[in-house]
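Q: Joint fold for the lines below.
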Amino acid sequence: MARRSRFSTQTLSVLAALQAEPAAWQHGYLIAKETGLQSGTLYPVLIRLSERGLLEARWEDEQPAGRPRRHLYRLTPDGLAQATAALTEAAPRRQRAPAAATRRPAVEKT
Amino acid sequence: MTALLARVLAGLLGRCGGLLGPGRRDWVQAMLTEANEIPDGSARLAWLGGGLWLVVRELLPRTIRVLAFIAAAAGVLWIVWPGSPSDSAVPVNRLEVPVILLLLAGLPVVVRRSFGPVRDNWLPRAVRVVGYAIVLALIAGKSVMARDGSKLGAYFHQSWALETVVLLAITGYIAAILILTSQRVRLTRSSLQIGIGVGAVWAGVLYASAPLGEDLEAPSIKWWFLAALALPLATGFIAARVSSRDTQPMGLAPTRQGCLTAVWAAGSAAMLLAALTSVTIALFPHSVPLQTPAPPAILQNGTVIPPNLRHEYWVELSVGQADLTAYLVLLLAPLFGSGLGALGAGLARRSRRSDERDGGGPQRQPSPAPSSARS
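A: Joint structure:
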């Protein structure tokens, strides 16, 4: 019997988006565009990952011209390891059910 | 129109986000910031709507808990407040119950500052809710029982010293519920479960043996004391053994886990027993057996009970004192629990060491978790 991943499909899609560029700091709207998730789904996922120590968050250091400072996110080393493991484990399922989590051009970006 | 609606939603999100804890406000602020980058129209409305939904989901459980507590507190006051001015328990109740309700409302804030918020798990949250319900039932039952047992107020004098001790004990119990379920006291899930299970069974058995309170002179009282000695010892032993096998990272050594679990078991049993007995007596005061022997017609302070009031005095004295043993257990249980729990946990550590020397016992996985490194 196949073992169920400890992450939901939505969380896996967020992890995939963040794992695609692990060193880069990404903002919420960008992740939302890559995953196709709405803010009401995306932010609870980000909050949960942050509380588990898998995600680090910070505000942009300097005030950019013409727009407010962004809240930025990237995976912690532990988060990256867990994301890699979970995505590898979930890969066959994600290939079988692509509609659930493949509205993400960014994942293929790598 | 959409732009106006978006402004309204953004304003609402900003205001409601301010009601969240400091750890959550940044996330709401982030959503508001991102909203400015989304093209005006339905996409921005959906984004802000999602943010509002997140805030509502965060606030809803807290709002429900606060409203439920206010309703329960109002219910307790409604039960406790009435009473004849001649009843000597009425002024005590009218002072003591609001103080306990204020403590129930204020202590979470104090404990949160020192020990952090409740652990992010359903069990510690459920323990807090059930613990508060038991304390509310206890004070309602105790107050009604005291009122029914002091109607002849002139012949009953409330001991303020005793009431203060009970008030302090109840305060300690409320603080213990909050502290042991907080984030900084890493009582493991299994320790919480063992404590609750043992406490509930212990209280259930003792309550079933004497639902209207046990007389200190009764022959069965020896079983109560035997249980008071054996159960914390066994709980401390079992909890220390179980938590030593726990590979989850935690902040407390197995011996301390065992000791705290025994305190937890003894305390929850005592509080549950006192609440059940008080409520039963408050609901069925006429079923309480009369004390034997009958009280004397002349009290120790020289007051004479008129013949026409002697039976009523006897009934009220019996009702008012029926729960004394349960309150004695309430005061002593944490002491028994800590002492005997520490002894049980110490025995568990010794037996584990001898298991390891003999090469038997549980084979511990090599793990960097602090629980296995510490023993």
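Q: Anything notable?
A: Chain B has twelve helices and no strands. Chain B touches chain A at residues 24, 26-27, 29-31, 33-34, 36-38, 46-51, 53-54, 57, 120 (CB under 8 Å).
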